[in-house]
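>> Question from a student workshop board

For tomorrow's exercise we were told to take the sequence and the ligand below, predict the bound structure, and bring the output to class. My setup keeps failing. Could a helper post the expected result so I can at least see what it should look like? The ligand is 2-keto-D-gluconic acid.
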Amino acid sequence: MKLDVLQTGPIPPIVEPIFDEAFTMHKLHKAADREAFLKDVAPKIRGIATFGAIPISAEFMQKFPKLEIVANMGVGYDSVDAKWAGEHGIIVTNTPGVLDDEVADTTIALLLNTLRQLPQSERYLRAGKWVEKAFPLTAASLRDRTIGIIGMGRIGKAIAKRIEAFGRPVVYHSRRPAADVSYRHYPKLLDMARDVDTLIAIIPGGAETKHMIDARVFEALGPSGVFINVARGSVVDENALIEALRSKKILSAGLDVFADEPRVPQELIDMDHIVLFPHVASASVHTRRAMGTLVADNLKAWAAGKPPLTPVPETPYPPKR
Ligand code: NAP
Ligand code: 8YV
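>> Workshop helper replied:
Here is what the output should look like for this input. Compare the format with yours to find the bug.
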């Protein structure tokens, strides 16, 4: 008997066949009447494969009396109520490690694009303006910058390693000093923001980090400050960011993530001096295949009566007594 799995949104076509072959997939996003569909399939669902399309809240999980495992495509699982799942014997898995290099590479690309205004220079060329005069010199450069990374986990470390190769100093903020790194640790984000001119956010989303990057942080970062966000839109007070950019409290921003994706505030779209990516940090065929395969492998292990491969800390396996 194959495991009955609810699929909450589209799976990248490169990995969809793995799921269709291994499990009985129930595709919520293809249902004409979602409520009727859920009512029909809920009694048999033992697994959920989630691709960030809808929040997996306590209320949602309660609909499935036989639910045992929620497998999330993404290392960030802030859209899943993992605490509630853990309290109710449901395992949650994510996709750590397999995307670190891709996300770190894209972060460096976003940083350099933002500092050197490279997307703007390309738009300039395509608009035929180069023949009239050269693209203006950019105020910012990576030269002389000190980079403060917010979050020094798997991806934070991969970003730091790359920045070291550029010869620039790295410092970081997290709740506890990270193992295996010698960069200066700041227990307080505001203190770090005062000492650096470039901030890169790569922390989890969720209630604990909501709006932790706020007007005070931008004030501390100062007028040459550049803010790069590859974490979650929720970690920054987006209105405060817009205001800081508008009033030139900071110089620029490079954003891969937003508070209400895929909707991006018009104020940000209208600012030509910042760089916006549509949440693409891990979006290569190679990396999405690795992530999708890990989601499937977690469900396959579970279906075979084996431990899940990558359970999140809120739902350890075997469960703590
Ligand atoms: P990780 O290894 O768990 O690292 C998380 C880091 O954040 C740790 O250094 C942790 O240190 C720090 N942190 C957690 N809560 C914090 C808090 N309240 N205040 C300050 N620091 C805090 O995770 P990862 O694999 O590097 O991924 C990090 C996040 O990046 C994901 O959760 C996801 O949201 C985001 N991400 C985005 C993309 C994208 O496409 N843009 C792709 C992948 C990941 P302490 O626990 O000591 O505080
Ligand atoms: C994905 C991510 O884009 O892993 C994460 O936390 O944000 C990204 O790699 C996202 O999970 C969509 O599947």
